[in-house]
């Protein structure tokens, strides 16, 4: 039995064929209608079947995968919306207060902050990838082994015990401070637990080498003397370097903002990734 869609597609063609036929006799008109009907049925059926084949999923698990992706996407969009708005407001406040300009490209991992301080141009870069390096407490394994044979009372929370802190991750930041005709400083540091730990301080006569936005410049930078490891510096001298950066806006509030920004952007990129792969599988 022909489907309604096939009949709907065939009917206009029949009508046009009948209109063009001469009305001399009904005997002549009938074969023309029958012939038009036969010509119409085959293309309509073949076109429908071919389109249906191309719409079939490439694998048997595609439908289940799409459903799971949609479920995850819905969950991520619905959960933590209020916290995300508060986090965004806090980040924006810190950036505005520090007069930072933001370069945050959708789909890219690196974030670039820039500002001016006197005759200096300051550039801070960090990456979302650092959130994958969640810090683990080295005492966890020792604690588990030591308490393995003790009673269940050990697992009961003590009165007035502080809530467990969320896991932290080391956020690596590169800070370049450039002065006209004087090259640039490159400070490599790690932010963790509200503390900025300087690892290395280098000076380059060419500011482009300090920024090293290409692989070629990064390779060239490695051939220069980078200075001693910060841990080998006099503690008092290292403290002055910390104050130097703090006066340029890399204070405690800024450090907390960086880790918040990484977590916030990573969540947005994850939701975007879910949506993109869902659309790809469903296409």
TrEMBL record:
GO BP field: cytosolic ribosome assembly
Matches recorded under Gene3D superfamilies: Mitochondrial glycoprotein
One GO cellular component term noted in the UniProt record for this chain: mitochondrial matrix
Biased composition (Acidic residues): 137-152
Location of the region described as Disordered in the Swiss-Prot/TrEMBL record: 137-167
Entry protein name: Mitochondrial glycoprotein
């Amino acid at each position: 039995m022909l489907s309604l869609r096939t009949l709907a597609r065939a009917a206009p063609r029949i009508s046009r064929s009948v209109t063009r036929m001469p009305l001399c006799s009904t005997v002549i008109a009938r074969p023309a209608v029958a012939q038009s009907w036969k010509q119409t049925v085959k293309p309509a059926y073949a076109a429908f079947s071919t389109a249906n084949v191309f719409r079939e999923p490439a694998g048997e698990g595609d439908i289940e995968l799409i459903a799971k992706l949609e479920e995850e996407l819905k969950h991520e969009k619905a959960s933590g919306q209020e916290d995300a708005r508060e986090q965004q407001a806090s980040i924006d406040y810190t950036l505005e207060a520090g007069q930072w300009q933001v370069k945050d490209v959708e789909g890219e991992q690196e974030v670039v902050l820039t500002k001016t301080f006197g005759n200096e141009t300051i550039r801070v870069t960090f990456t979302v990838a650092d959130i994958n390096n969640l810090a683990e407490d080295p005492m966890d394994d020792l604690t588990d082994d030591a308490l393995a044979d003790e009673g269940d009372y050990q697992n009961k929370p003590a009165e007035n015990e502080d809530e467990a802190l969320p896991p932290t991750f080391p956020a690596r930041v590169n800070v370049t401070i450039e002065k006209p005709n004087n090259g640039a400083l490159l400070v490599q540091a790690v932010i963790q637990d509200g503390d900025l730990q300087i690892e290395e301080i280098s000076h380059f006569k060419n500011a482009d080498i300090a920024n090293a936005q290409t692989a070629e410049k990064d390779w060239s930078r490695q051939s220069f003397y980078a200075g001693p490891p910060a841990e080998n510096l006099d503690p008092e001298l290292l403290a002055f370097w910390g104050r130097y950066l703090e006066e340029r806006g890399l204070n405690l509030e800024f450090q907390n903002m960086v880790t918040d920004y990484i977590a916030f952007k990573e969540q947005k990129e994850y939701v975007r990734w879910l949506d993109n792969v869902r659309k790809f599988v469903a296409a």
